[in-house]
Amino acid sequence: MAVEVTSSFPDARLDYLRKPLYLMLNSGMTQGIYAMQSTPDILDFSAMSREAIQALLQQYQLGLTVDEALTIQQALLKRPPTFAECVLWSIQGSEHCSYKSSRPHLKQFVTEAPYVILGPREDAGIVAVAADNQGKRYGVVISHESHNHPSQIVPYEGAATGVGGNIRDVCCMGAEVIAVADSLRFGDITRSKTHWIHEGVVGGIAGYGNPIGVPNLAGDLYYDPGYNENCLVTVVTLGVVREDHVIHSYAPPHAENHVFILVGKPTDNSGFGGASFASSTLREEHKERNKGAVQEPNAFLQRHLLKANYALFRHLREKNLLDKVGFKDLGAGGIACASVELAEAGGYGAEIDLEQVPTSMEGLLPAVVLCSETQERFMWVVPPDLAEMVLSHYNETFALPRVSQGACASVVGRIRTDGLYVVRHQGRELVRARACDVTKGIVYDRSYTAPTQVLSEPDLVSPADFNTVLLKLLAHENIASRAPIFETYDKQVQGRTVIEAGSADAGVMQPFNDESYPEEIRKTGVALSLDHNPRYNQIDAYWGAVNAVVEAVRNVVAVGATPLALTDCLCFGNPEKPEQMHEFVASVRGIADACRAVTLKDHPEATLPVVAGNVSFYNESAAGAIPPSPMISCLGAMPDVTKALTYDLKRPETMLILIGERRDECGGSVYYQLNGELGSQVPKPDLSTFAREIHAVQAAIQQGLVLSAHDISEGGLACALAEMSFKNQIGMKVDVPGELAIEKKLFGETGGFVLEVARDKLKELRKLFEEKQVPLMVLGETIAEPRLVMNEVIDLPLSAAKVAWEQGLREKLL
């Protein structure tokens, strides 16, 4: 290969050049070996063949294509890049950081609304949910991120650091963190590997969230063989902040002399290349090597950092200094990405001195120090006259060096006004590039082609025993009680949780419930739900995405909240493959169409915005890609949290009302799954009808006309009715009318709601729904006898149904 390789260390040994950098950095080698490593100073691709370039990139495990390497040299830098620049671009230009394949399609999303304080432009979105008597708006900060590849390789650490990074995203907006939630996808539940990953992931989420003192508010869980080799771990975090107290993740105006302050754990080699790793296909033969791309969590240090941050936020507010600073967490790409993004977003460049970065390992390569994804770190950009105060705050007042070995705050660089991003080490320039070139990445216009698979509806014989079918459905791992997961998490810490995960279709909090907030907003409630059904997406990526949005919105409405915003984690396979890229494109279109159909209660001219999220590609292995997985969360709010509803039936002799006609839409249902079928007729919501339904149901709950409410999803109407009966052991007798086959009426998963209504409220409810042009249907009534009686084909004691539902998942996880 025609490439000049010069040593970065005088005592380097040439044989180490033949070992992939990624393996050297992530194989648990001793500190002494690090001092002997050598990497090329310059990589000159100009005289090399494409094959030689490819070989060189693979040798040093650089996440660049040949064309990207040539673009960096010929179009961006107009000179041969340094090794550190190649590492930087391989991370900052990855799908994880630059959205290079997804960015053009994400423009379809509506991201603004009258109450959106901040859309998806910084580390987290912010939605106003209340206003005090002085007109000050109070926002919920929301972030939604995935940590899939790390959790597949090292489940506990991968999930824990996913929670930690998401929490930092919210905190760095100047917010107090108040809740986390998770949406998890695991493989076939009968596989021992699935149990190992499940146990590690749930343990990691609990092992980080519980010590940090943040309640777990909501969750979503699905098992499917499509995730056997690629689990999905997506996390939502909520925080609260007053609108005029927001801290932005960019250098403020007039920041010409500002300095960068790195805060937290000393830098090590953990997580180096994590963003590139997250943007590549998982390979079993690289499993041990890839473990080094997973960061190491320290929840107790992060808890201490959060306390220190909150105290500094208060000081900056009191001194009217919030508009003089910028603040960002260190996630993908570490110091490099945090500093260049802080600078470039404010219209500046930056200069970083790696010798000023505290490290916990000797002999780390400069590229590792620059791009390591060591956890529990933040970065401030502040005026020089505030630097000593910030350093003293962390190092002395909150005593970081005594709390955790090597932890501290230190000045590591400064703002540049020429737009350049420059990194120095021991008097040498490792990076010199335009900051905007680094952050922009290289955008792709990927081709996409619709899949050619032809699906059909199965010709199934009507069940001989409907009681047995219902019991099997209730015990199915994708329907049964999630208590084995929820009971692992702390749900009541902070004292804000009103409805816990598993007690209703959405978790509900009272975020402003103490005396530090104005009395007029203390009853405000917020609701959070997460949803996505991979079997729907296997049939049709577009309608699967529509259903994910619709279901998440229904869940929020069912507790009495008004949906305000969505977030998404878009998890897909290889975008370089046209059929997999098509799945992504169709899903984005489905989300956009569903959002545009939901007009907002107090702003009918506006539609549901997407305010945060991420894209995760390359979720595939030798076994193939995961099912298309647009993981959706919905945030809602209500003015009076005391009106929030759970789904358990409240008393006998009430009426059960169905909202949403039953259709021949069993495709992707658990009922078909019990019969070894997938089907083709996936639920296809009528979006104009859906918008009217949610407004009618939400109004009915807020007017006190509904005793309990539950949405219809997995397992269909029969399972929804059964789940409502369990807590208070209240039975029911219902008859679902219509010409549809009875099994499809009971077990089909066409969406809708079941409402419990007192007899004396039925007339008023009918009037409201007529005004909203929403049909309703009386199904039957609740009864004192603890039995489930449905259409004369189901007659079960509640005790048997409840045992199946409560033990179904728990027994499979033993």
Could you explain the architecture of this structure?
It is a single chain. This protein is α+β, with helices and mostly antiparallel strands and about 800 residues long. Among the domains are: about 15-80, no CATH class; about 645-814, PurM-like C-terminal domain (Phosphoribosyl-aminoimidazole Synthetase, Chain A, domain 2), CATH 3.90.650. About 35% of the residues lie in helices and about 20% in strands. It is built from 29 helices and 30 strands. It has a seven-stranded mixed β-sheet, with helices on both faces. Strands 25-27-24-28-26-29-30 form a seven-stranded mixed β-sheet. Strand 12 (about 420-425) and strand 13 (about 430-435) form a beta hairpin. The longest helix is centred in the N-terminal third of the chain and has 21 residues, at about 190-210. The termini are far apart.
